[in-house]
């Protein structure tokens, strides 16, 4: 597929839109689907990385993917240097874990790696349903705006804020989560972040709130210190 458009999203993310014959039968039914993208590493070997389809236009057959830009790995290097006309190979997605759209409320929590899935889920929820997002980003310039018919409330935690100096990502998100009061009714909580952080957030909800276990989905989208490791479904 071919890069057709590029849009910066704050200081640490880049949105690329792709087109091509490879997308003629593309289907993505869930906001946290994962596709495989293929890159060439420093040694010339082909490596695969997982990404979330941020948006797929079924009429124009264009696929939008948001890339977090940080100093590591062939995917980041490719995305940071990408130009309109550059090509990229794709695989998937395989199967979709579709969350029912009949809960009374939704809470979506994550770091930058989760923003594409968070944004897509907010935008695809039914009209009027309350959805709260809690996201960790570098600073105010990295916040995003989601257009939705749902009743969206966004909470942003700024890693680089002076008052957060010395705190790690897990501590920042846990503090913010502890400050939230879960709404009444039957709700669904979705978490995606670095594996250790996602596990800590899930543990807090299980041990310190009355949120039912079966209505919490937590995933490790990446694992600190490992180039290509994730745990898409955290249990136990």
UniProtKB/TrEMBL annotation:
<dbReference type="InterPro" id="IPR007037">
    <property type="entry name" value="SIP_rossman_dom"/>
</dbReference>
<dbReference type="InterPro" id="IPR039374">
    <property type="entry name" value="SIP_fam"/>
</dbReference>
<dbReference type="InterPro" id="IPR039261">
    <property type="entry name" value="FNR_nucleotide-bd"/>
</dbReference>
<dbReference type="InterPro" id="IPR013113">
    <property type="entry name" value="SIP_FAD-bd"/>
</dbReference>
<dbReference type="Pfam" id="PF04954">
    <property type="entry name" value="SIP"/>
</dbReference>
<feature type="domain" description="FAD-binding FR-type">
    <location>
        <begin position="1"/>
        <end position="100"/>
    </location>
</feature>
<dbReference type="InterPro" id="IPR017927">
    <property type="entry name" value="FAD-bd_FR_type"/>
</dbReference>
<protein>
    <submittedName>
        <fullName>Putative siderophore-interacting protein</fullName>
    </submittedName>
</protein>
<dbReference type="InterPro" id="IPR017938">
    <property type="entry name" value="Riboflavin_synthase-like_b-brl"/>
</dbReference>
<dbReference type="GO" id="GO:0016491">
    <property type="term" value="F:oxidoreductase activity"/>
</dbReference>
<comment type="similarity">
    <text>Belongs to the SIP oxidoreductase family.</text>
</comment>
<dbReference type="Pfam" id="PF08021">
    <property type="entry name" value="FAD_binding_9"/>
</dbReference>
């Amino acid at each position: 597929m071919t890069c057709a458009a590029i849009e910066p999203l704050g200081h640490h993310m880049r949105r690329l839109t792709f087109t091509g014959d490879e997308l003629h039968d593309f289907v993505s039914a869930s906001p946290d689907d994962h596709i495989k993208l293929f890159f060439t590493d420093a040694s010339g070997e082909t490596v695969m990385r997982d990404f979330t389809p941020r948006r797929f236009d079924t009429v124009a057959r264009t696929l939008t993917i948001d890339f977090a830009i940080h100093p590591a790995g062939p995917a980041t290097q490719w995305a940071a240097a990408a130009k309109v006309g550059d090509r990229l190979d794709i695989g998937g997605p395989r199967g979709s874990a579709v969350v029912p759209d009949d809960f009374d409320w939704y809470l979506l929590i994550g770091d930058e790696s989760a923003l594409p899935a968070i944004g897509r889920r907010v935008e695809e929820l039914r009209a009027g349903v309350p959805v709260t997002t809690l996201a960790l980003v570098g600073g105010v310039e990295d916040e995003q705006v989601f257009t939705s018919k749902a009743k969206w409330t966004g909470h942003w935690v700024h890693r680089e804020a002076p008052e957060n100096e010395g705190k790690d990502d897990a501590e920042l998100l846990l503090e913010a989560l502890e400050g939230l009061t879960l709404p009444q009714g039957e709700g669904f909580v979705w978490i995606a972040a670095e594996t250790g952080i996602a596990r800590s957030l899930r543990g807090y909800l299980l041990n310190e709130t009355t949120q039912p276990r079966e209505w919490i989905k937590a995933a490790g989208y990446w694992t600190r210190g490992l180039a290509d490791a994730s745990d898409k479904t955290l249990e136990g």
